[in-house]
């Protein structure tokens, strides 16, 4: 995902932060988005709870993307949401 302007990047990072905060307030990890958590809860477990299946469908519907939660999960694994400066520091360490 390429975000061209500083304002868009600022907004993107703040939306991710709000998403992570909401996830933490509902019992999830502080550095994980709700979409990522939902994908794990609805798809990656052998017997998903009904609530995760429903939330998975709702989130994908709200984003007009049937793969939003999956993409979020994959993005989290690859660290795509991190600032480029963070990625550069990790490579240099």
Provide a compact summary of the structure:
With 93 residues, the chain is mainly α. The protein is built from five helices and no strands.
Question: Can you offer a commentary on this structure?
Answer:
This protein is an all-alpha fold and 93 residues long. The chain contains five helices and no strands. Helix 2 crosses helix 4.
Detail the topology: elements first, then pairings.
Layout: H1 6-25, H2 34-42, H3 50-62, H4 68-78, H5 84-92
Pairing-aware structural class of the strands and helices? mainly alpha
Unreliable stretches (pLDDT < 50, length at least 5) are none
Q: What would the principal axes of the Cα set say about the shape?
A: globular
In round numbers, the mean pLDDT is 85
How many helices? The count is 5
- What is the first-to-last residue Cα distance? 25 Å
Helix-strand string: HHHHH
- Beta-strand level of the residues, as a percent range? under 5%
Major sheet details: none
Tell me how many strands there are: 0
The oligomeric state is single chain
CA gyration radius, whole angstroms: 14 Å
Q: Tell me the helix content.
A: 55-70%
């Amino acid at each position: 995902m390429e975000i061209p302007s500083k304002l868009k990047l600022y907004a993107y990072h703040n939306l991710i932060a709000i998403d992570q905060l909401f996830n933490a307030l509902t019992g999830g990890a502080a550095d994980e988005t709700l979409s990522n958590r939902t994908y794990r809860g609805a798809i990656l477990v052998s017997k998903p709870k009904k609530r995760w299946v429903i939330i998975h469908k709702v989130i994908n519907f709200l984003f007009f993307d049937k793969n939003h939660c999956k993409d979020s999960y994959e993005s989290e694994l690859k660290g795509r949401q991190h600032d480029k400066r963070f990625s550069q520091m990790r490579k240099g360490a």
